[in-house]
Specification:
Organism: Roseateles flavus
Number of helices: 16
Strand content: 5-15%
Family: Belongs to the ABC-2 integral membrane protein family.
Subcellular location: Cell membrane
Order of helices and strands: HHEHEHEHEHHHEHHHHHHHH
Distance between the termini: 37 Å
Structural class: alpha/beta
InterPro entries: ABC-2_transporter_component, ABC2_TM, ABC2_TM_bact-type
Number of domains: 2
Keywords: Cell membrane, Membrane, Transmembrane, Transmembrane helix, Transport
Length: 436
């Protein structure tokens, strides 16, 4: 019995090891997926994070606003591009820039008088509604650089802004010369007195928009500006996270549907159905074309139903072009059909095709931004995934729903999807074998 058991186990192991495609899939996919998510969530801690794409609008042109702009441009966390007001607003609405900062005319003069808090310049921060955390990061960086440059201008011969509230007590224990110590103590008392509002004194407060923001003038040396934040998108209803999640999951499971239909072609070939059909006066292109059309129709209808269910349950809408939305759905359906045919042509057998399909579909979905939005990818991966058709499908559906973009944006995404479908279908016609 033991010899028989060992022989059976050895046979099963040999059969598994001979199936090289399945072996590669089982070993390679965990490594690839773990590498992907590890790179997103910190990795070894030394990777370069994707820099936040920011538009900078300086309508003041003063020496102070220019220095703040230079500091932001040199900040390693930001990728700053100088724009006009109209260019910046359009870029944020389209998602080309994650946020924009606008320095108003008169900023340099008003911010220099930081001690007079009755009239503060109003700096505007516009941001993509899906990027609320990025807006908070940009708000903090702006405060850091603005305070540094304002204090550098206003306290050129002073000690700076650190610890003014407790400076007097600390100076007593210091080894500074007596004259310098007394000068610094006077400065600390003066700043603390100026910080205390007097009866009848108006204190400017920061305006807040749709997201956390605004200056807090109750602290020592409050910010020399008021911050007004505003979420910008072409869609009137703003960002809806369900719109992206339904786009991503709809695209993923439609692609899985294409895999199953592609494997069904190979099962039909194994049963001899293809040989019987070839006996009829039907061309090779006609037979594969019929399967392409059927998969295209099924995939498009399924994706439409998934998106309609999300709209009914969670209230997001097509805020862009309805024709563009349908065009992207049809493009995704065509890509699914071409993908299924290409897998059937490359896989050879149903068993081998399933292994290949798992690896290919997971990679496409992962890199296409269906699981995790593409804007959180590292910078190099964001550029690389522009070659992934599913990235265009997910971004196209986002553009037509919550982003509210026009037909032109959808046409570009659909062109990539239809073009990819054409290439995959041509590959299937070239490589498909009528006998297993």
């Amino acid at each position: 019995m033991m010899h028989a058991l060992i022989a059976l186990v050895r046979t099963q192991l040999q059969l598994y090891l001979k199936n090289r495609k399945a072996l590669i899939t089982h070993l390679l996919m965990p490594v690839l997926i773990a590498t992907f998510f590890g790179s997103l969530f910190g990795g070894s801690g030394d990777r370069e994070m994707a820099r936040l794409k920011v538009a900078w609008v300086d309508e003041d042109g003063s020496a102070l606003s220019q220095r703040i702009g230079q500091q932001l441009q040199q900040d390693g966390k930001l990728a700053v591009q100088v724009m006009t007001r109209a260019e910046a607003e359009a870029a944020v609405r389209k998602g080309e820039r994650r946020a924009a900062l606008l320095m108003p005319a008169g900023f340099g003069t008003q911010a220099s008088r930081w001690w007079d808090r009755r009239q503060l310049p109003e700096v505007q921060l516009w941001y993509d509604p899906s990027e609320a955390l990025s807006a908070q990061l940009l708000e903090g960086l702006l405060a850091q650089h603005a305070m540094r440059e304002t204090l550098a201008q206003g306290f050129k011969s002073g000690p700076g802004a650190g610890g003014l509230a407790t400076l007097e007590s600390e100076l007593e224990a210091s080894e500074l010369p007596p004259l310098r110590r007394e000068q610094l103590k006077v400065l600390a008392r003066t700043v603390n007195e100026l910080q205390t509002p007097q009866p009848g004194e108006g204190v400017a407060t920061a305006a807040s928009g749709d997201a956390p923001g605004g200056a807090s003038p109750g602290e020592v040396l409050s910010l020399p500006y008021a911050l007004k934040t505003r979420a910008l998108s072409a869609g009137q209803a703003g960002y809806n996270g369900y719109a992206h999640s339904f786009s991503g999951m709809g695209v993923q499971f439609v692609l899985m549907l294409g895999v199953e239909l592609g494997v069904g072609l190979l099962m039909a070939r194994r049963s001899g159905m293809w040989q019987r059909l070839r006996a009829a006066p039907l061309s090779r292109g006609l037979l594969l074309g019929s399967h392409f059309l059927s998969i295209w129709i099924i995939a498009s209808v399924v994706l439409l139903v998934v998106m309609a269910a999300g709209m009914a349950l969670f209230g997001f809408r097509v805020q862009g072009s309805l024709a563009g939305f349908l065009l992207v759905v049809l493009g995704m359906g065509a890509f699914t059909a071409g993908f299924g045919l290409a897998l059937a042509a490359m896989g050879g057998s149903p068993e081998a095709t399933r292994g290949l399909a798992i690896m290919a579909s997971l990679m496409l979905v992962m890199l296409g931004g269906a699981w995790v939005p593409s804007f959180v990818f590292p910078a190099w991966l964001q550029d690389l995934t522009l070659w992934v058709p599913l990235r265009w499908a997910v971004d196209g559906l986002d553009a037509m729903t919550w982003r509210g973009q026009g037909l032109g944006t959808a046409a570009l995404a659909a062109a990539v999807l239809f073009g990819s479908a054409l290439l995959l279908t041509g590959l299937a016609l070239w490589r498909f074998r009528w006998r297993e």
